[in-house]
Amino acid sequence: MYPGRAATRSLVTGGAGFVGSHLVEHLLGLGDEVVVLDDLSTGSACNLAGVVDHPRLTMIHGSILNTLTVGQAMQGCDRVFHLAAAVGVKLIVEQPLRGLRVNIHGTENVLTAAIERQASVLLVSTSEVYGKNTADRLREDSDRVLGDPLLSRWTYAGAKGIDEAFAKAYCDQEGLDVSIVRLFNTVGPRQTGRYGMVLPNLVGQALRGQPLTVFGDGLQTRCFSAVEDVVPAMVLIERDPRSRGQAYNLGGAREISILDLAHEVIRTLDSRSTVELVPYAQAYAPGFEDMRRRVPDNTKANALVGYEPRTSLTSTIMRVAADLLSRERLGSDAMPLAGAESFRGAL
Ligand code: UDP
Question: What are 83-129's pLDDT values in tens digits?
């Protein structure tokens, strides 16, 4: 627990998801009581297997679209970490309506319930809000460059932008104590490739000895950040009164192209896989637009809470691989080759 801090009761919406489950463990470690609200649509109870019997954890299976459920879950909570969302480019492209409903209506339900109960909120947003801005470093006040709103790809950035605007308006007009973090390609154990996220996809393919599917020409770049670096910063930002009404980037330090990432995965896991370039139209849908480059400026979070991305990509690749193997998420067709076997042996 933080020195001199009374135990608090935190609601984590989306607490059974990838980032949410790491946050739940961290909050329990700090001495908080934690309530998880999750509809288990993309998250999984398995993600909380390590803490499921914890005496300070309550799990509620329900949706943020249900105002009654949200109100009940927030009972007695003094702060809310709002992570529940429809995420993943693949899911958003395939089910834009679900994304819009959950990400806009669900978030407003959480924000209004927090005002009623005078709870503070950390709204977890995304670097997607910057869209196609390829600035050398994206600052929190950088312009948003979004494509045609009729392309479903942009509905996620649109919805999350509305969420942030809602949060700020509730803060300014109704006194909601809210801060915002924008996550940049957070990676780590428990992330699933099912909804399109690149790292677990590539690691799973490398372990199976399948070709690593790199979309487009592979020269698009990202800065991957490790979940164990991001989660403590989220908590510190939430409890810092200076963050009220503000947004903070939380991203990785190293810019890497997806093609280089694929080769790094193959090298790290000693895999015999090759790399296969897949056109965007085939990977997603005709007319799909990708972000060419996405590089965060982390100065603001660093100045506030000392955020610094420390974990190397290589160690994250190893941990993601270990997680996939231990959870046997590779499926019955999994045929790890020699490289994966020696990797497994080293665990
Ligand atoms: N990508 C890829 N192969 C995959 C999944 C994704 O090449 O199997 C690409 C995707 O087109 C994007 C980048 O990897 O350029 C990151 O994708 P992700 O969905 O993880 O995050 P995004 O940054 O797009 O939100």
Answer: 999 987 888 888 999 999 999 999 999 999 999 999 999 999 999 99
- Which of 156, 170, 195, 307 is catalytic? The answer is 156
CATH architecture of 9-186+225-250: 3-Layer(aba) Sandwich (3.40)
Q: Is the CB of 190 under 6 A from ligand 1?
A: no
What distance in angstroms lies between residue 290's CA and the mean position of ligand 1's atoms? 8
pLDDT the model gives residue 89: 80
* Spacing, Cα 328 to ligand 1 middle (Å): 23
Boundaries of every domain in the chain: 9-186+225-250, 198-221+254-294+310-344
Q: Are 289 and 153 in contact (CB under 8 A)?
A: yes
Under a CB-based contact definition with an 8 Å cutoff, are residues 131 and 145 in contact? yes
266 lines ligand 1 (CB under 6 A): no
* CA gap 284, 21 in Å, rounded: 28
Average pLDDT of the residues of the chain: 92
Q: What is the mean pLDDT of residues 205-222?
A: 97
Q: Residue 295 is encoded by which pair of tokens? A: 């590089």
Across 36-43, average pLDDT: 95
- Ligand 1 and 215: CB distance under 6 A: yes
Give percent of the chain above pLDDT 90.
85
At residue 126, the 3 state secondary structure works out as strand
Q: Is 201 in the pocket of ligand 1 (CB under 6 A)?
A: yes
2 as an active site residue: the answer is no
- CA torsion 271→276→281→284, rounded to 10°? -10
The listed CATH number (3.90.25.10, 3.90.420.10, 3.30.70.240, 3.40.50.150) that belongs to domain 198-221+254-294+310-344 = 3.90.25.10
